[in-house]
Specification:
Blueprint: H1 4-8, H2 14-31, H3 34-50, H4 54-80, H5 85-89, H6 93-108, H7 114-145
Length: 146
């Protein structure tokens, strides 16, 4: 079996992966409650207003790096004997989330638009919890395509 990047970024599936990732993000944001949920929803709305199609463009921009970051966990999953990536990823969700956020942290340092950078910096302290919550959804996408 090839790398997760090879699987998720193949020409015949990349667009579908991007669409599924966008739906996952939309669903995760919509599910948030409380004060941090309100802040996340407001920040997400501001991000999407920056440019039409901002979310799919961002996902497309991050997909290769994210697939590389998740690949070691996917390879471990293949060797684990677990029937789903959800089973393999769940115990390591915080670790996976931190790996993904390290990528967005590096990218955020280069944001040219002030509103995007400011929004990211405001939301970053709670991002690890929100991203950890999303890892089962990420694992379901891995199961779907791999």
């Amino acid at each position: 079996m090839g790398s997760l990047k090879d699987i998720l970024t193949a020409d015949d599936v990349r667009r579908n992966v991007i669409d599924d990732c966008c739906r996952l993000i939309e669903d995760e944001v919509r599910s948030k409650r409380g004060m941090s949920g309100l802040a996340l929803k407001a920040g997400f709305k501001a991000f999407k207003k920056v440019k039409p199609g901002a979310l799919p463009m961002a996902v497309d921009n991050l997909l290769d790096d994210f697939a590389d970051a998740v690949d070691p966990y996917y390879q471990d999953h293949l060797e684990s004997g677990n029937s789903t990536a959800v089973q393999s990823f769940r115990p390591r969700a915080r670790e996976i989330a931190n790996g993904l956020l390290a990528i967005t942290d590096r990218k955020a340092q280069r944001f040219e638009r002030g509103v995007v950078r400011k929004t990211y910096e405001k939301l970053r302290p709670t991002a690890v919890n929100h991203t950890t919550d999303a890892i089962p959804g990420v694992a379901r996408l891995v199961d779907k395509y791999a």
